[in-house]
Every structure is written in C-alpha cells, then in structure tokens.
Amino acid sequence: MPEAAGGQARIEPIIQAFHLFSARHGVVLGVFIPTVTAGAAPLLPALGYSVCNHA
C-alpha cells in the first residue's frame, strides 16, 4: 500500500467527522449568533454614544 494512499485513508474519517460536526453545530451557530447580535444591537448606540462623549 503506497504511503500517499494510506495517508489519505487516515485523513478521510477526520474530514467526514468535521463535516458532521459542522452540519450539527452550524445550525447552533446560525441561531446563536443572530440572537446575540439582536440582543447586543440595542446596546450599540449607547456604547457608541458614551465612546463619543469620552473622546
């Protein structure tokens, strides 16, 4: 068995596991990030205002 083929065979399950992980956690991040952004959005003008006042 050539070394290149053996190396590819070892990497393949890792790639598959990564894709599975991404598929599962991509949904979580897809929900989590907009939720956090929406939660932070009202604070941003206040934060910008205080930064401008202190500058």
Automatic annotation (TrEMBL):
Protein name: Uncharacterized protein
